[in-house]
Amino acid sequence: MHRVILTAILMLAIAFPAAAQRLNLDFPGLADRADEVVDVTLDAAMLKLAAKFLSGKDSDERAVRDMVNGLQGIYVRSYEFAKDGQYDRSLVDRLRSQLGSTWQPLVTVRSKKKESVNIFADMRGEMITGLVIIAAEPRSFTVVNIVGPIDIDRLAGLEGQFGIPRISEKNRD
Amino acid sequence: MNLDNELRNTLRRKSPAPGFAGRVLARIEEDDARSSFVSKATDHGRRWRAVAASVTLAAVLAGYASHHIAEQRRIEGEFARDQVLLAMRIAGAKVRYAQQEVRAIGTDRTEEQSSIGEVDN
To answer: How far is the C-alpha of A110 from the C-alpha of B113, rounded, in Å?
Structure first.
């Protein structure tokens, strides 16, 4: 009997290893104050649908399709403001307070002039099963919540694709 | 006088040949049966035409509905794909920026403060 229960628990653990956390990304009134708002909400069903429309011939889209497979959700909120001080900087702390014990800070970049970025990963052993990116500037605020296993290096490698030049290429100019 | 006799003979009532009424009735019944068959055949044809029209209409409607659903799904799929690409582009840009800032530690960092992990300078 004990063996059956143990097997069931083990099977559940195998079946749901990446039950990563989805953050509450509701910021009441923030969108009204922003000049530009990006709101992306993609659950598992939408990601599955999107994957069908990502071209297998295009290498960039193929890379995204590979990354999206296995994800349970992608949520992005990005706000651009006309002037400084349009959002409460404590939003970052409020988001951090939502993260459970399995979340670990990967990178923290603090800058007075440029962008401050906090990257947190939901670590289950060696595996990253969720990612939260919080980027704050005086006139912009961005949160990305990726739910599911994600390769952060591949994610970083995506910039510069889809017709957007890489930062290094920009710098060369 | 001859004319009177001829007229009288011509207009004289004559009894029909035996079995005349029976033949007339039989003919009438035969005509009825024939017209009934033609009428039935016409009804049958009309019914088939109605069925064919209904099937054609149903096929056209089903085809339209199927096309509409497929078109709707294509629009939703392309929208979802664009949203994924946008989300990945934003996420990728932020991660890359953070990586570059981390790599820049130890170089020209007079005004900036960067840290890895929980270390916060």
So the answer is: 6
Distance from C-alpha of B116 to C-alpha of B121, rounded to nearest angstrom: 9
What is the 8-class DSSP label of residue A164?
A: P
**Element spanning B113, H or E:** strand B113-116
| Record: contact A76-B90, CB cut-off 8 A | yes
Distance CA A109, CA A133 (A): 11
Q: What's the rounded Cα separation, in Å, for the pair A79 and A144?
A: 12
Tokens of B84: 């994924």
What is d(CA A122, CA A105) in angstroms, rounded to the nearest whole number? 9
* Mutation site for B-interface testing, chosen from A48, A110, A159, A164 by largest number of B Cβ within 10 Å: A159
CB A53 within 8 A of CB A123: no
**B112 in contact with chain A, both atoms CB, cutoff 8 A:** yes
- The secondary element (H helix, E strand) that includes residue A147 is strand A140-147
User: Tens place of pLDDT for every residue, chain A, 173 residues?
Assistant: 566 665 655 555 444 444 567 889 999 999 999 999 999 999 999 999 999 999 888 877 888 999 999 899 999 999 999 998 889 888 989 999 999 899 999 999 888 778 899 999 999 888 899 999 999 999 999 999 999 999 988 888 875 555 444 434 333 33
Q: Which of residues 22-51 of B touch A (CB under 8 A)?
A: none
Of B87, B99, B119, the CB nearest to A144: B87
Q: Do A108 and B81 touch (CB under 8 A)?
A: no
Select from B86, B87, B114 the Cβ nearest to the Cβ of A110: B114
